[in-house]
Amino acid sequence: MFESMASHSRLASSAAWTIASSVNRVLPEGALPAPSWAPGRLLKKHQRTPMRTGVPRRTLSLCPDCNREAVEAVIRGQNDVAGFRERPGIIDAEILEEGGRILMRKACETHGPFEDVLSNHPDFFQRMEAQSLGGDFDCVGDREVHDHGPNSIRAGRGSYLIVDLTNRCNMMCRPCFMDANGVGYVDETDMEDLKTIFDRAGSFKPNREINVLFSGGEATLSPIFLDAIRHAKSMGFHRLHVSTNGIRFAESRDFAVEASAAGLHGVYLQFDGVSEEKNKHRGLGNYIEVKLRALENIAAAGMQTTLQVTVVNGLNNDCVGEIVRFALRNADQIHGVIFQPVMFTGRDERISTEDRYAERYPLSQLAYDLQAQTSIDWRPMRDWYPASAYAIFSHLDDVLDRGLERGSLFPDMHPDHAIMSPLLVDTDKGKAIPIPTFFDLGRFMQDVVQITDSGRPPRVTRAMVLLSLLRNFNQAKAPSGLGPYELRSLFEGSLYRFTRSDDDWSRQASAKTAHWRLMFFNGMWFQDAYNYDFATIYNSNAPVATWQGEISFCAYNGGGWRKVLESVHHTATVADWYRNHGRHQIYAAGKKVHLVESLSRRPEPLVQIEAAPVGTFFTRGCRDLEMKRLVRSGG
Ligand code: SF4
């Protein structure tokens, strides 16, 4: 009976959609608005610059050895920044399929051939490329911001503006993407630098909203950390976050409360596995206890946490499923997860070829490992999309809301480097299900592109999106209790979460999704000199804001810019810094952070990992689940 009603309603919405879209096709397309934040009218799909995709294809890359030599020439004073900018060590490269893998091959006349693996699942790689949306606007008026030769960003605004506050850190991990505490000098951003950075950030078009991500080193060690948040807020940036190892948040709930009061919305917390064993390479003696306490204090201060997981093949890729399970069980505190395959930069830039092959972790492998380590029928070829799919909804928001001061957050990253998959979480029962099980997300996104391209007035656009939402919803396959009303609320909550820039966007987003929660799992692959592809640098998703303008995160860390700029700009030697400011603790070789007991009664354990019944989450894979013991014993 229920199934027949559900199927009836789906048929009715499909019929209504067929009629509405036929009428829409017959009518001439309308023009899209030209908001003041954009360099022109909003772009339709066919007007966007296509991403460079396809296999085989030729591109430009870096010779890792020439690049390192070019960096060292600046550090030794034999070259300057302008010289490095023009000649960072570029060579030709080819991307090809061979033996069930997608490879990058290149050869340097001086240093010989290099090969790296971009994917070990060619079908998945090509599925992501085929769904790319195309780029954002070319930048206008950005000469002061983007002037980095062949590494210059040319289009879009990015969706994370990374602001490094210090290169100091209170940990000593291996891997460390930036060799914190290993370079012999201290480079700190002061308030003057910071003001220039945020002035420039709003100085060009497209002037979009962006997630500011204070970073480092360990950003919370910076003497200006709280002032930096306050300043960004005063400049009208609405999405303020910090990327952190969590030690300071674990040490002090007051610190978390102060950061939240200054304007911080959320925390990106380093988290490489649910056991001490899986985090040994980080060197912190009570890693799990620190992370749990940080989560608790961040949540108590009213902020959400996104887990930031560095995945190294053979080290912790067998635990990615357990990390997802941990996140789902703690959905009240955890906003989502970003898996970041290791990049061979910083402490690892001289990795041996043998180790590089062994540790390289392509994004496609993440989707297949999650399928294997979970029991929720999480299918790589059905449930994963390029992360640029978010931009379809940002564009919808721009089309609907014509009075925005800034454009919506627009993640137009290249499909080879960023993927995403949403799960629906029942926060009461602790269950999860991939969205495409009951909702045709792929067809919905195609519908939204078609609707926005037709350029109708906002109320018609809204009505058609709602119709498409209903026609793609299969009530018979949805979890019980999730109907069209809940689906619509989830959709509206997601729009808030990913696109809006109102002051209360994070509260609005979670208010709309109290019982049902969409949790997004992302894979973000930053490049190093071995797999560097210049064709993907021009519209960087994650620009790093420096005294020399905004530079793609990949160019900054993987293409040598960090060392070049820090060597010119650094403020003190490490010894001088300690002499003038005093030493701070570095947690390495098993040293533990001393945590005082919470003043309030300690809450119930954050997680109890036990064998999961079939139909909830998991699991095969990681067996070393010390969490329960650790939580009970307090570490
Ligand atoms: S926490 Fe570890 S990886 Fe991050 S900056 Fe510090 S040493 Fe490097």
Overview in brief:
The protein has helices spanning about 1-25, 65-75, 80-85, 120-130, 190-200, 225-235, 245-250, 255-260, 285-300, 320-330, 355-360, 365-370, 380-385, 390-400, 440-455, 460-470, 485-500, 505-510, 555-560, 560-570, 575-580, 625-635, and strands spanning about 55-60, 90-100, 100-110, 110-120, 160-165, 185, 210-215, 240-245, 265-270, 305-310, 335-340, 385, 420-425, 430-435, 515-525, 545, 550, 570-575. Helix content is about 35%, strand content about 15%.
Please characterize this protein's 3D structure.
It is a single chain. Helices cover 35% and strands 16% of the residues. It has 635 residues and is of the alpha/beta class. The longest helix has 25 residues, at 2-26. It binds iron/sulfur cluster.
Look at the helices and sheets and give the structural class: alpha/beta
Number of helices: 22
Major sheet characteristics: 10 strands, mixed
Q: Enumerate the spans where pLDDT stays under 50 for 5 or more consecutive residues.
A: 599-635
Give the % helix.
25-40%
Q: Quote the beta fraction.
A: 15-25%
Span between N and C termini?
A: 53 Å
Oligomeric form: single chain
Form type = globular
Identify every distinct bound molecule in the structure, by name, code or SMILES: iron/sulfur cluster
Q: How much is the average pLDDT?
A: 90
Radius of gyration: 24 Å
How many β-strand stretches?
18
